[in-house]
Amino acid sequence: MKMKTRIGMCLALGAMVFAFAAQAQDAEFLAGGRTIDLWPKATPAGSGRAPAGRERVWRTGSGVGAVSNIGMPRMVVFQPPHPNGTAIVIMGGGGYFRIGIGHESVPTAKWLLALGVTPVILYYRLPADGWKPVAPFQDGQRAVRLLRAKAHMLGIDPQRIGVLGFSAGGNLAGIVETRFKHDFYAPVDNADQLSSRPDFAGLIYPVSSLKAPYDTTRTRRELLPQDNAETAYTVQDHVTGHTPPTFIAHAADDPIVPVGASRLLYKVLREHGVPAELHVFRHGGHGWGLGMPGTATGQWPILFADWLAKHGWLTPEKPASATSTMPAGR
Questions:
Q1: CA–CA distance, 115 with 315 (Å, rounded to integer)
Q2: Parallel, antiparallel, or unpaired for β 67-68 and 56-57?
Q3: Alpha-carbon distance 223 to 81, whole Å?
Q4: pLDDT score recorded for residue 13
Q5: Cis peptide leading into residue 40 (ω within 30°)
Q6: In the prediction, which pLDDT does 217 show?
Q7: CA distances for 280 relative to 91, 140, 185, 316, angstroms
Q8: Does domain 19-322 have CATH number 3.40.50.1820?
Q9: Regarding beta strands 118-123 and 161-166, do their DSSP bridges make them parallel or antiparallel, or are they unpaired?
Q10: Crossing angle of the two packed helices 106-115 and 300-310, in degrees rounded to 10
Q11: Distance between CA 124 and CA 137 in Å, rounded?
């Protein structure tokens, strides 16, 4: 066997071992959270059928650690050592055909725990699995309402619940923050009497538009089976003066989602008087998650934490809400 071939095989084997080790660590971390099913009985009528087979965890390629084939939409809630009462629903990306749990959601949750924020990882239904395009938006809206309903039990302030989405998850977060007056499903219990409006939103390289010239993404292809998808799921079309404060981060050289979409969204937010902040990095591409240390995109968590602090979401406002007896596991 040639030396180059042997070295290549060793490197590939090492990468596989590293990937499996990372997935094992992620599984251990996720097992330490509290799992809450979004729907008490069945998913909303007319939203499609659950996919056949077991949930899939991607183990190779660019989607290592991603999850698809989701039949049980749910959220996993983690309790920080020193909670400050703020909770953030994390919506990983993946073009609505998978969710970047390992690459985006888990690292972000660990980082938020260190800030005292209660991270909530959302497993939303995917149109690529056979669900209707409306399904993920039903799940996102329901997650915010359910968190408000369970705020006391979870040790969070019901007026300090935010959403943080990446790529397609940024599309989901953007629609949840702008279309809160539209019910994506019929009420199923008392939680649905509560507001689904997040108190703030973070959109990281988001798919904010399904319209030209920003319409080349997998997100668009998965949502287009719905007749009015372009208008229904283009975020800037739904911005009003009541849209919550919004933080946006994007790379100028993003090959998947043109940065112009985020610039347009920021412009519309400002025109409506919404407190907004946009950070455009010269380099970074797409799908950087928390960003590598030492890179430009690796600065966005610092900028986002500073933004949260400026708005008062990192300082406990109600000491009583900062204690919880939330058990681990389901």
A1: 10
A2: antiparallel
A3: 39
A4: 34
A5: no
A6: 85
A7: 21, 26, 35, 30
A8: yes
A9: unpaired
A10: 40
A11: 8
d(CA 218, CA 286): 13
Burial class (CB in 10 A: 0-12, 13-18, 19+), 35: middle
- The two three-digit tokens of residue 114, written as one number: 């260190």
Instruction: Report the alpha-carbon distance of residue 141 to residue 239 in Å, rounded.
Output: 16
Tens of pLDDT, residue by residue over 136-163, are 999 999 999 999 999 999 999 999 999 9
pLDDT recorded at residue 93: 97
**Percent of the chain topping pLDDT 90:** 81
Q: Where exactly are the structural domains of the chain?
A: 19-322
Measure the CA–CA gap between 221 and 160, rounded to whole angstroms. Answer: 34
- Location of structure tokens 């939680």: 191
Alpha helical stretches, state H, 32-167:
106-115, 135-149, 151-154
- The rounded distance, in Å, linking the Cα atoms of 268 and 27 is 40
Record the pTM.
0.89
Q: Report the chain's mean pLDDT, rounded to a whole number.
A: 90
Q: How far apart are alpha carbons 195 and 224 in whole angstroms? A: 28
**Residue 121 and residue 104: Cα distance in Å, rounded?**
10
- In tens, the pLDDT along 29-54 reads 999 999 999 999 999 999 999 999 99
What are the CA-CA distances from residue 94 to residues 114, 154, 227, 246, 276 (Å)?
Answer: 25, 28, 22, 21, 25
- Return d(Cα 154, Cα 178) in angstroms, integer: 25
